[in-house]
Design goal:
The chain is of the alpha+beta class. It is about 30% helix and about 25% strand. Strand 22 and strand 23 form a beta hairpin. The termini are far apart. Belongs to the class-II aminoacyl-tRNA synthetase family. Type 1 subfamily.
Amino acid sequence: MSKKQYRSNYCMDLNSDYIDKEVKLAGWIRKKRDHGNMIFIDLKDHTGVVQCVIDTKNENFENINQLSVESVISLEGKVIARPSDSINDGLESGKVEIDIKKITILSKAQTLPFAMHQDDLGEELRLKYRFLDLRRDEMQYRLKLRSDVIKEIREIMEEKGFMEVHTPILTSSSPEGARDYVVPSRLNPGKFYALPQAPQQFKQLLMVSGVSKYYQIAPCFRDEDTRADRAPGAFYQLDMEMAFATQEEVFEVIEDVMFSVFSKFRSDMEISNKPFVKIPYKEAILKYGSDKPDLRIPFHYHDITHLFAENCPKIFKSIVEGGGKILMLPVKGLSNQTRKFFDSMQKFAQDHGAFGLGYMLVGEGKSGPLAKILSDEVSNVVREKADGAFFIADYEVNLPKYAGPVLKKVAEEMNLINKDKYEFCWIIDYPMYEINEGKWDFSHNPFSMPQGEMNAFEKDPGEIMAYQYDLVCNGIELTSGAIRNHDPEIMYKAFEVAGYSKEDVDREFGAMINAFKYGAPPHGGSAPGIDRMIMLLADTENIREIIPFPLNQQGQDLMMNAPCEISNKHLKELGIKIEE
């Protein structure tokens, strides 16, 4: 018997090889079954579960009998074979059980707020008692998966020669991006730190400092509204940057990480081959209605505007003459759908901002609302690809609002998404600028290098492309990145288009613009979201399921009662006054 105080073995260790051996175990009583003169308990630790048994002859019987589930015990006993009719092949330890000789009660549990095996728990209850929720097998698996994935990522990055550097948590507020979380400075009354939305400026400064390849598993803080794939508060990303690197070299590193991680932890799934598909932003919008396409869906939009150049139906004429697009979405099996399906799709599209969603079915003849309006030429194009198609007529700027959701909704309703694949793709050639409230603004990362460098500004701002890119997997954006603008003069010019003066840039980004004046190498990087990677690997659509201690949808920590009020004394120290 081990001399260790609490245990000699873990539950997962025990199998037939241990029969007749004395062991010491420790853990939680997950289940308890009273058979009158005998009590069976399932003892659980972080590795698994083993069945233990005690009878009335044992002096510890009454102590066990009075304990509630989830009480913590340490026990000693002999490993014995289970009767053949009670073997549990679903457990690693399912062929053995422990004949309890001695028990030590380490902690008694009160009545639980919910049953550990209950599946229909509300999220608010789970988050309030997250410490209990995390004991459940499903959550233990996700915690272990997260740990193993981060370990794997670190090993890959170290092998590739990247250096892990930790950047500051307290920094200055940045005018771009999401809202900052701010922290008052006691030593500098009236001034505030900001928690970093990302280590963007610091990692670029590291490139100027002579670091060739940087990475860290970085916490980032953004005061954003919640949604299924984005949680308020902190999130983590694999932040990386490379000096003297091209876009393709950044892609190669990220693809190696993704392919290795997803192949290792989901060997049951098909993974995109390297190199991943590259889709220009404009093409993604016209083909998928989104810059986050789900390539598991076996159909996409086709631009058929050219078919209406000479013979354009009245309902499409204003769109075509105004420079808009007519898109066709051919779908195999569409002719088998009911009128209720088409009506629901029409409503779905309109709820997302579409004028309408027409369709035509082609078999031996033509049918559907557009059958009499669309030419035989159009119906023949549909027939070449499918037995029916939806049609959208609109301007490109409006397409992302509803074209992508419609495509996904059709695929979901018709069960046409291949759930056994991870489909990766790069979205490239993002526009550098977009119109926001009547003026030009950065559409992506303001520190990106415009394609063409200084010569890019000879074009209209709407035509300037940037060395910016996103990596998308199954419709989920996993990372954004860019080749950075390392030239001060190009940076001043880029910000000038977005309405910033030279003085504005010097004030807002003084450290970085000043550093670039002393010799900055070309550099680029990316930052895959750890939480979203785990979300995909764990096959869950809610990011809060894989964050150990997430905030709820209102940005609250129900377990720790945060955010909370602070005392007047503390406020006075910080020089803060709360307005009534």
